[in-house]
Amino acid sequence: MKITDILQNSKQAFASFELVPPLKGNDSEKLYSHLQPLMDFSPPFINITCHRDEIKYAQNQDGSIRKTLIKKRPGTLAIIAAILRKYEIEIVPHVICGGASRQKIEDELLDFNFLGIENIMALRGDAQKEQKSFIPEIDGYHNAFQLVKHVKRLNNGIFLDSEELSMVKTNFCIGVGCYPEKHREATDIQSDIVRLKEKVDSGANYIVTQMFFDNSYYYSFVEKCRQAGINVPIIPGLKPVSTLKQMNILPKLFSINMPQLLLEEITRCKSDIDIYNLGIEWCINQSKDLLKHDIPVIHYYTMGKADNIKQIITSVF
Predict the structure, then answer these.
(1) Residues 291, 283: contact at Cβ < 8 Å?
(2) Residue 101 — pLDDT band, cuts 50, 70, 90?
(3) How far apart are CA 317 and CA 315, in angstroms?
(4) What residues contact 25, with CB distance under 8 A and at least 6 apart?
(5) What angle do CA 249, 148, 299 make, to 5 degrees?
(6) pLDDT tens, 39-57?
(7) How many CB atoms lie within 10 A of CB 208?
(8) What residue ranges define each of the domains in the chain, with the CATH number in brackets?
């Protein structure tokens, strides 16, 4: 079932989750051990992240430099197959521009379609660690809205090699991401919303936000989007902070403003355990406030951990 249909037909608010695939070398039991505590809540859908290959440079004996691609996690198809083998649930795989040509992206989408996947998240992805800004692959896409257009063309039966093969139309419901406090590369929130509208106008059916810790940013962002003519569902995404290190890293990585009250509470914590429990309590309060504003679904970023998310869902839903 498409995410938009799930949202339209749901009679009560629910939680969805985003999973990070386990590191390569683990088997499917590692995946299930993380997933099972969340499946106890019967989520209508889960998202599966993907990560571009990392680049490692090494010097050959003749002094030349060779580039090696390092894949740290199983492929998305393997993760989907493992989940479908054990559970009946709608899966939303992430598709990224980073590290992929147009043909590679199309091949992946056709594999998803062959498996009966009806939903995807179309994302640009991050730049490589050694890059100052995002650089697409040769014959790749610079922006997510170009990827959205590609998926939309597949839904209309238009393929890269359509002159050679007789194709069946795909039927993907397309999700895209957004930043309630603006993307770190954006000049301001208004220019970021203009870029978001490009994705919606290109065919995106719904939006999922990046994490935020102050709900007022989400409410303000939704209002600005509606004023800009963006009328598709905007699903809030939350993540409970769990360590002091995250408090230092997350604002820089995702251009997030930490509420002063949260910072003050953090300073009173004497250990990461205290911060972990504070993160759960803060996320519970955020979730309850969102539900009071008639938000139909809250999307939780699990980051490979389930215990804190389970405590939050138990208290909220």
Answers:
(1) no
(2) very high
(3) 6
(4) none
(5) 45
(6) 999 999 999 998 665 555 5
(7) 23
(8) 3-239 (3.20.20.220)
